[in-house]
Write the structure tokens for this entry.
Amino acid sequence: MFWKGFLRIFPFKRKAKQSSEPEAGNSRTENAPRQEESPLGTALPAIEHEKASPGTSFPGGTAELEADLAVNIAKIQLAYGKSSDLVMRELKTATTPSVKLAVIFIDGLVSDRTVAENIIAPLLKPSEEIVSEKVPPITFFETAEKSLLQAGEVSVTSSLEEVFDELSSGKTVVLIGEENRALLAGTQGWKERGVEEPATEAVVRGPRDSFDENLRNNTALLRLRLKSPRLHIEGFQIGVLTKTKVALAYLQGVASDKLLAEVKQRLERIKVDGILESGYLEEFIEDEPLSPFPQLLRTERPDRVTACLLEGKVAIFTDGTPFVLLVPAFLPEFLTTPEDYYERFFIGSFVRFIRYAAFAISLVLPSLYVAIVTFHQEMLPTPLILSIASQREGVPFPTFVEALLLELVFEILREAGLRLPRIIGQAISIVGVIIVGQAAVEAGLFSQFMLIVVSLTAIASFATPVFSLAITLRLLRFALLFLASALGVFGILIGVYIILLHLVSLRSFGFPYLKPLGPVIASDLKDTFVRIPLWAMRTRPRLIVPPRDTIRQVESLKPEPPIDTGKRITDKRGDEET
Amino acid sequence: MFQEKIASRQLFNIFFIMRTTIVISILPVLTVAQARQDAWLVAIITFFTSAVFVYLIGRLALNFPDKNIVQYSRELLGNWPGGLLSLLFLGLFLLMGATDLRIYGEVLRTIFLPETPLVVILGSMVIVAIMVVYAGLEPLGRMTDLIFPVFTLAVLFTLFFPIVETDFGNLLPVLYGGWRPVLFASLTPTAIAVQYANLAILVPSVVEPRETLRAALNSLLWASIILVLAAVIVIAVLGADEGAHAFFPVFKMVRAVRISEFLERFEFFPTFAWGLGLFITLAVNLYSLSKGLSQLCSFKDHRPFLLPLAVILGTLALQGYNDSLEIRNFFQPQIIAPALFFVFLFPVIVLWIAYFLKRRKNSVALPEDERRG
């Protein structure tokens, strides 16, 4: 079992056949020509249609290849319509008797050189031995498969549906004479972005590679880091039209069977026209779709995925996006970065503390300011409240309106700066600083204190390492602002209480979202507010890992100076020197 | 039927928070008013008297570890008498919930939100309590896990900041008025210990029922320690005279403290702690109430009862007292003690007697069962 997974990094084909519904194939081919007319319109009716009549056949006959080259070519051409990127070359071999062939591939997805040199050339001019053997047409197929095609991966199929799938993923299809089978040669070679630095999760110390848009590259990056054959990567195909490859990676034995079954069941449930990003999957498989909190951790760092797999999680790779989903996710993990473990544990713990503080600030600071200035001026020391009051003298709005306006301005600035090219983005930030920062205060629109509060909040919200949680905080901040303006600190208390209540009721793939804080799991607190030294982290996190595999290292790994040599030698040296 | 479970640790949290909330809010004033500078003695005595209460109700519940009071009172007394008796108990939850609610409403109104109508304050608290109970007992238990450390820290801050202003001479002379006022004053906190009546509903939901009594007694012990501290510090900071007159002495004490230019008026801490604790208190009372009532009416789920009960609770809190003076009067030993003792002790004692009678009857019939039990 293990070596199979090890040798074939990606056993898609097999899995795809097993997991996708049998009836899904027919109408896909059936609807392919229609798709040209209205790509959006047919997508969903296609799915419904499948269920209504699973046995519907392909318009030009069955969904199987037939023993007629011309018919097969016609079928493929009909399915792809007038697509200009479909290349079809009809050839004749140089053998006697000559065999009719068709080489079909999609331009841009294949490497032209491979197709020309390793597929077409050997087929047209088979080597001397084969010619001399005078291969009859019947066995030319086998010869081509065994000795002619010079590709790393060659497979045989008679299903038209599989032909379409593989064509669209960059393989070259070879149809030979009167065969009702097709040869599929792996000639993939499209332009890729290559492994770059992670754009959203940079570290000072740590690996600099990140996932890219190609699923195979991504799983390879993982396999390079986690060499045990216990790393299993299972393939799925989701999306009736996009046929997006999705892979499930887990450490066999460390990830619990219950979790795996749950993830698979949720993934197999999805029947849509297309999956374009892991965010699509996220919305289909999360536990509580109406919660503002992200219930899946996403990352583009291979080291983070590796670490999470070691803790018994399951990673969901999606083709076409560098973002990998990790389940189950717990809220405290959204405040961690891989670097916490790469730097020494003092600083690792300290930055944790900073992040929790930033988390609290970005959630409640503006509303706390509004509540105190509006309702509870007595809570501030007298000199401070006097200086706030003197600054607010010229401001025409109530504090709440002031806070709301400034927050909105900030959100607009952020949104504007985010999408612009980097050079113009700088211009925006200068405009923002000068206009909002200085002019607005001088014009008496906003008070300086409010400016400080809002910018502090903004900075704090950037300190949240996972962007999806920062988005949540942005939304909740506005809700708290309204509560604070109505009921003061009491309103904030109510708001925070409701948020906490929501958090403790939330589950990620059946596991309590606030673990290890609610319910309290004492042994997991080692990696929550503080990050204890690695040599003291003997066990994997509780709950998700089955009990048989919770120990992750041997005992007494704490390093110590050598027992009898160390001290004596330095003493002697010291003696000699003096 | 699916039974939600909480850990005994969470039970400890619940009762510690409930008890400390009420203790820190109102108790010092009542005990100080009666016992003056010996209020801390009251706190110590209260621990023992309350422990008797907790033992009575907790031990009774342990005889029926998978049933709540509605179920076992029917089993012991028959359908109708048992139902009526448990209704008396449910009334207790309603009364305590409403009173706690009103007290916190008064605190907020007098200290933080003088312009806000009381109905808005009470209403928003009731809404939060509904949300908690609607989510169920398990989220409630996890909430206490989260709140417990924050709550404890806030309470300790409240009690330790004022230490700079203490004058322990205020505690002298000890037992100036003799034991009588001290014992008399301890009636009120003992009566308030009937909040442990919630055990009667919660025990079947605890994962380890045998642990519940220990958890409850532990929570009482720690809450009593906090109460002793609070009483000592309030008297030491304010003095017996001023402490007797303030309605919320802890707040008054905190306001009186000024450590430095920037460390003053930190009544944020007690309000915060109190608010957190009050939501738990309210939610637990509301849960017990709705759970008991749903059992009484043979409903599977307690949630349908939530909304009407919450409305009743809110109305009772709003209309039950005209002002904080009336609450204070209600807490006078001569009023609260007979009332709550009757509502709490009468059913409990009746149930104990019924239990012993039944056990005797059973032991005559099945002697081997008795030995095992």
